[in-house]
Amino acid sequence: MKLESKVPSGPIEKSWDKHRFELKLVNPANKRKFKVLVVGTGLAGSAAAASCAELGYQVESFCVQDSARRAHSIAAQGGINAAKNYPNDGDSIWRLFYDTVKGGDFRAREANVYRLAQVSNSIIDQCVAQGVPFAREYGGTLSNRSFGGAQVSRTFYARGQTGQQLLLGAYSALMRQVGAGTVKLHTRREMLDLVVIDGVARGIIVRDLVTGKVERHWGDAVLLCTGGYGNVFYLSTNANSCNVTATWRAYKRGAAFANPCFTQIHPTCVPVSGDHQSKLTLMSESLRNDGRVWVPLKKGDKRKPQDIPEAERDYYLERKYPAFGNLVPRDIASRAAKQMTDDGRGVGNTGLSVYLDFADAIHRIGLDKVKEKYGNLFDMYHHITDENPYEQPMRIYPAVHYTMGGLWVDYNLMTTVPGLFCLGEANFSDHGANRLGASALMQGLADGYFVVPYTIGGYLTGNKLPKVTTDHQAFVEAETDVNARTKALLGAKGKKTPAAFHRDLGRVMWDNVGMGRNAKGLQSALSQIPEIRAEFWKNVTVTGEGSDFNQVLERAGRVADFLEFGELLAKDALVREESCGGHFREEHQTPDGEAKRDDEKFQHVAAWEYKGEGKAAERHTEPLTFENVHIAQRNYA
Amino acid sequence: MNITLKVWRQKNAAAPGALVEYTVSGVVPEMSFLEMLDTLNEQLIAKGEDPLAFDSDCREGICGMCNLMIDGQAHGPDKEATTCQLHMRRYKDGDVVTVEPFRAKGFPLVKDLVVDRSAFDRIQAAGGFVSTHTGGAGEANAILIPHDMAEKAMDAASCIGCGACVAACPNASAMLFVAAKVSQYALLPQGQPEREKRVLAMREAMDKEGFGHCTNEYECEAACPKGIKLSNIARLNREFLRATIVSE
Questions:
Q1: d(CA A134, CA A155)
Q2: Which residues of A are catalytic?
Q3: Residue in chain A lying closest to B130 (CA)
Q4: Residues A269-310: pLDDT tens digits?
Q5: What is the ipTM of this complex?
Q6: Alpha helix positions (H), A514-618
Q7: Type and span of the H or E element at A45
Q8: Total domain count for chain B?
């Protein structure tokens, strides 16, 4: 397998312009002859489907939810970055690019990140034109705020519901095309396999989740915009339906999976309350703009927060990182919280949380202003915990939130399978080993609105694609595989539910492949996961039938894939003998407990190639070169 | 604590349905209502019985996927909360709770507690957008929008499309849903060029889907998990009236 990044040569500022010029164009009259399948309707998927349809391609769009508007992008809270420099505080495309590469701990491809920063401004223009109600100043201009890991205010937001508003914008663009008949939308469909003909992606197999019918769909290109794999940890801030199945099936059909061990643990989530819990809830990190994180100075201090005097509190982020204070990047804030709780200074009944305190902010800017900025987040917290954050500090703890790894893609966002593109969180491309706050929305929309609509044209004109029909042998085989799998899941007739297996896997992942990783733990995970998987296929119980609306079967299929994928994640973490960004190997840290990279050995992307059932995956590398950003130890002190 | 549930079970739209009684044990106050249903489902699956089908996804009140009628109230007893945000601390040991799907002609039943809300998508496709192509946008700050106007548009845009307004309305009207979208765009300069066309098209689509009319019952506002105000319906009516007068 060859990993060709296809990054254009020459100065980075000109790369994208040059590349766009070099990409061949599809004759407008020919565009309608090409069919593009878009899987997923989050920011990347909706934006790509709408934009490709506007260009004239035939588009078919698929999502597992009952409406395209419900994809998990909807839950993003804090905001979206752009290099507009409206506040005149020194921002620029170059600075956004620089911050993103540094924030990713020098494990992202420079040219991709530069392009992301470049198109960021067009995204804001586009969203405003769609009627996205961003926050505004009294003079009517757009409002900005600062966000984790940045010293400039470059984040645009719509209260604490930025993802919702951006997704509804993209959804409105998509539904406009659906109304115009240029996009055919298939809701409640789950992609269960990729169809590859002569080495090229030519279709997908989906299951209609209402009728259970398995369907074949052909296309000239397939775009996977299916999000991240955070639910491999069972508990995460992801929605219940978030899964790895589409990308994992693509991996098994030849798409390399890159950097699966780069997972992001978000520092500000509502802490776990018990075993019954089905998911964790994020509290936007925008809260760290005004909230102050602290724990008691004394171990095991059981006093109420309001009874602990100022002098007996440790505002540890402000103490350890005076320059960035409460706004340090996510990986650093998460690990610092873990250090505090490991040290016995955690708070709450479980001792597994820290305080996020707004008393100073309420005093400084007033209760009304705090309400306006964070009202919905405070309400959400109140609903879950029954504690009023206006009166007492929030309790927060890190939780799995985002996955930087994903299918390997080149500069065109094409995977190692020609014709198969991967966008948004599902790909590995722009965030390196750690994503900065408010950059996920930026990347999803950049890929969907401003990258793929160009690069797909280059692919479609540059390759002579023979006509295919869904009678082709490859479709028949893929469908047979899907049916056999469904049969195996229904036929196991064991004693344990899919959710119980998922919980078992999650425990192994969180304990051994979570915030702190070491060789011993990873090896233990690598021996436990295959055991759980073997037990799963023997002892899982899936009620009902395949030819029906069957949520147990849906869950079982996703858990089965997580049980394979989790092993690859752990293996990637074991081989990457360094700490970088969200990947923290305890053996590799500085004396102050910060991540210690090994650029000599690991300044590369690791991309795993599937070699067949029961065979070890092969690790390929794409070296990373930094010609524009000065490589340094990240320092936020 | 133990909770007794009376839940609507129905294999599919064609089959007859009925309320079935279950007792869920081991319920704790920190559980969400949906986690209590998960617990029941785990018990049912372990016994080889078909678990309850119900929709949910983000479980933090923003995706709009969850939709249960709990003791006759859409999303249950809490104000401005979705079903997934309801917690069991609301209940006490021995309580009997009735759980039904959102019922409306416009929302045909799929299975048990799951309904088909694709009518909302079709209404959106009829006009719930600003016709702007990717790439054609001008500089964002060239459009000035007064702060309070942006906030008002945001209030309307907060709608999560869950359908509680329809389920709560005695007429199964979708007026609040349509009003929220029409209001968002009517309040913003970006929405002006298609202002009349939009309201006429969305209203027509709404009627075609079989939703009823508004007779000022105020139930939608009370049920809305996002606090969308009834004044949006007043605006929808004004917009509709205005459009019928000014359009040719």
A1: 11
A2: 330
A3: A130
A4: 999 988 889 999 998 888 998 999 999 999 999 999 999 999
A5: 0.98
A6: 519-539, 551-575, 599-602
A7: helix A43-55
A8: 2
